[in-house]
Structure prediction request, 397 residues.
Amino acid sequence: MKKNYVDLHIHSPFSLATSKKMDVDNLEIMAIKKGIDILATGDIFHPEWQNILKTKLVEKKDGFHKLKDGKTNFILSGEVSLVFGEVGKKKKVHVLILCKDFAETEKLTKIFSAYGKLKSNGRPFLKMSLKQLSDYIEKETKDCFIIAAHIWTPHYSLFGSKSGFNSLEEAFEGKPTDRLIAMETGLSSDPPMNRLVKDVMRYTLVSNSDSHSPLKIGREVNVFQNISSFDTLIKSIKTGKNFLYTIEFFPEEGKYFYDGHRKCSVSLHPEQTFKRKTICPVCGKKLTVGVLNRVYELSKIHGEFKGETIPFKYSVPLIEIIAAVLKRKDNSPVVLREYYALLDKIGKEFYILEEAEFDLIKKYSGEMLAKSITALRENRVKRIPGFDGQYGKIIFE
Ligand SMILES: [Zn+2]
Ligand SMILES: [Zn+2]
Prediction:
């Protein structure tokens, strides 16, 4: 059985705070090293990035795009930041759009240019509602699909505590469009948390990296089998058939798992937040309500989901495990050297994380790393929750 590792959400160098190394050639190299078969281009509505991709990628009949002599199947995709609603009650929602071909992306680019400045950011702000976006996608395109991005992030998401909605009907002003095919869980939530909210589980859950640098692509990823085209991928996402599992962060590692106030180093479990009336005990300002709290809140409205879901496993990027073992930062030269050496000697990152035998890892990298990876596979790690924009921490035994 051939597995397909699919990452549908990344950003180009034209988005804010992204690495200059995020060009197509580097993406191809890193995708191969990690074991990603199908990768989003990201930022497809940015005119300059779109031009680069048009020159470098070859459009294939199966709806994928490849570099000349390349291996990676690229999907034309981009995230947009919708800003809409009344003053004082503004909604801000990030949506991921997947397109089958350049003709369709061009149509949408033209429409979007009337709603925002596409050149100023790879992830453009559009003064457009979810309903408007849905209508354009339905009427103007045949093979474009949408995924609600990182649905629980406090700012900029469908259900976020700061500027999101309480239900899908409210968000889409009625029944959501059929082109909505999935919900992206984001780094701070995992499938068990999402199962607490029935409204979310009407859709397939997907996990993507939302990466801003080539090293971080695939840090969360979807694993399928028998994906031979854009169409079969969309079908698999919709139905769950041939969707084997997702690889997830421990939700504690995400930036918004707990509630808190970063400036005051205050991090609180939702029960504590409730007791403190959502006020920072140090400075008296309002706390940022995180993902766990928001999930509990919506679970009270919608109830729990009891049906079947796609399996998942937790993981941590290999580079972070190496950094923990070497007690260095994950961008330090010695960690990077060790990371690339292991990929050369043992194989692709997902193979090392999921399958490589203890003795093989030990042979090339020592017993500590082999032990840490084994502990990770058995979920034997300590998790320190992230809050208010600060990443959490995973500590290996
Ligand atoms: Zn986003
Ligand atoms: Zn404070």
The chain has a mean pLDDT of 96. The chain has two domains: 3-252, 319-390. The chain is about 30% helix and 20% strand.
